[in-house]
Design a protein that fits this description.
Distance between the termini of chain B: 34 Å
Number of strands of chain A: 11
Strand content of chain B: over 45%
Number of helices of chain B: 0
Distance between the termini of chain A: 40 Å
Oligomer: heterodimer
Number of helices of chain A: 0
Number of strands of chain B: 11
Structural class of chain B: mainly beta
Strand content of chain A: over 45%
Structural class of chain A: mainly beta
Largest interface: A-B, 20 and 20 residues
Largest sheet of chain A: 7 strands, mixed
Chain lengths: 118, 111
């Protein structure tokens, strides 16, 4: 059974940094693209970032480019999202997601909440 | 960016009756590899989204056959042949043909 368990969400002030983690199990992590998607009540679902199976190729939404960095450790079956220069509008529930191929979203984790507020 | 427009925003349904949701994209979702990358997701209250349909019309494992997807190019439809109580939630379409990946605004299905 595919399991994706996010962690690292927190309450922090604008300008702060945070690293989210996603531990994967139940599938061969190293051969699947992975993504981060966030959800807010007002803006619905918003794709944030994706990485290819090896991590060699990464992709970002314009809203986070230059501030967020996606990475993965295939030896630990873990996906990361380093979030810097956080803004109030980054407040959301962040989901880790597995794809069958690049540009695909198949399975979702349960999400981790990031709140940016002064 | 490809804009995904869903309608209706809210869909009152009757148990046992059919229902359908429309999703339109601002650009063709046919990729250069020949596939059309359009997914449908269901999000029940308090739960994470769950994929129902991928590449327009392919049902994911475990998805009841009352759910079906159709369409081509820029115009797509999710149909529920006979609505059951467990189908209540918000449904989203998502395109995976172009970066950035984009989602529709969601359709709330309520009894």
């Amino acid at each position: 059974e595919v399991q994706l368990v996010e962690s690292g969400g927190d309450l922090l002030q604008p300008g702060g940094s945070l690293r989210l983690s996603c531990e994967a199990s139940g599938f061969t992590f190293s051969i699947h693209a992975m993504s981060w998607v966030r959800q807010t009540p007002g803006k619905g679902l918003e794709w944030v970032s994706s990485t290819s199976d090896s991590g060699a190729n990464t992709y970002y939404a314009d809203s986070v480019k230059g501030r967020f960095t996606v990475s993965r450790d295939n030896s630990k079956n873990t996906l990361y999202l380093q979030m810097n220069s956080l803004r109030v509008e980054d407040t959301a529930l962040y989901y880790c997601a597995k794809g069958k191929w690049l540009r695909d979203i198949e399975y979702w984790g349960q999400g981790t909440l990031v709140t940016v507020s002064s | 960016d490809v804009v995904m427009t869903q309608s209706p925003l809210s869909l009152p349904v009757t148990l046992g009756q059919p229902a359908s949701i429309s999703c339109r994209s601002s650009q063709s979702l046919v990729h250069s590899d020949g596939n059309t990358y359009l997914n449908w997701f269901q999000q029940r209250p308090g739960q994470s989204p769950r994929r129902l349909i991928y590449k327009v019309s392919n049902r994911d494992s475990g998805v009841p056959d009352r759910f079906s997807g159709s369409g081509s190019g820029t115009d797509f439809t999710l149909r529920i042949s006979r609505v059951e109580a467990e189908d209540v939630g918000v449904y989203y379409c998502m395109q995976g043909a172009h970066w950035p990946l984009t989602f529709g605004g969601g359709t709330k299905v309520e009894i």
